[in-house]
Amino acid sequence: MPRYVDHDQRRREVTAAARSLVVERGRAALTVRNVADAVGCSTKVVSHYFTDMAELLHATYTAAAVRAGARLDAVAAADPGDVAGLLEALLPLDAERRADWAIWFAFWTEALTDERLRAVQRHRARTTTGRIADALRAAASSGRLPVASDVDADAHRLSALVQGIAAQATFDPRRWTPARQRATIGAELALIGHRAAPRSLRRA
Amino acid sequence: MPRYVDHDQRRREVTAAARSLVVERGRAALTVRNVADAVGCSTKVVSHYFTDMAELLHATYTAAAVRAGARLDAVAAADPGDVAGLLEALLPLDAERRADWAIWFAFWTEALTDERLRAVQRHRARTTTGRIADALRAAASSGRLPVASDVDADAHRLSALVQGIAAQATFDPRRWTPARQRATIGAELALIGHRAAPRSLRRA
Asked: Is residue A198 pLDDT above 70, yes or no?
């Protein structure tokens, strides 16, 4: 039987190697040579899957976004009005989420001067804000949030707050412990009159 | 009379050229060659002032931080309790402040894997949070904020919120207009019971 090469699997391996390089050694370490060494293949194989490093960084970014999306799906499926749970799913509270944020911050530098990457970042931020708005509406309809609140403004503010907390925690994890990150979100939700559902109070 | 070379002036020129390169063409455009071309000097002159690009990026970052510090000083000198004014001085509401944030975001990628740069970023965030706390205390002592509020928690939350708004506005300026940025800060201050002083309501 001929040896079967699973192209999707190989593509995922290359993307995972790129992720590790960026997270552990920085954006500058993301070269065709380093990725090939990490996967244990030739540089030709890497180039077969990704025409350049911008495309590979893009794939790495997308993989992190897909992971984040799956976390949000899980929270929303369990309780569509679990705003605190949704926001916590976005925060860098564990190794996986910290790595995802490191990828996004690395990507931002390039997005500053690349309109295609900028559009990707913009789309993701808008989608996240929309999901927060959905959760706020569900929380309001189940009586956990005042119906009079301005959902659109609240969603934009919470979306920015999560991004800011992630940035602070990434560069100052000692001060921005998981407990402080959660407390900051909790204080904001308390301010907008959110009465947390029991499962939002869990300390995972 | 011999031609006099002002070293501080030349150093500032090199730093300003680095800033323009990063803001207009991205981090990758920051090379000794490009900086020398922009200043109109030899690469030797650039190397005389900055031993490597990491040092030049550091100087560029610091220059942006000094500018931001001066903006905060001006607000605090006019009214130590002008929390809204202080936060607005940090937001990317005009070309200068947008460029400063672009510098910081460009710097973040390197800060992820460079402990020295990380320490600079950490120090700056902590200083900003401290200044916000000072303004909150001044606002409370002048009766514009409930005395019972948790100044430390509020300052950390506002500091994260400003950073998040800046990130959103940098990548999605159409959605995060100056009006939305100000409204987001205004809504947060309204939530914590801040009664804005008249000069905080100005629309500069």
From this structure: no
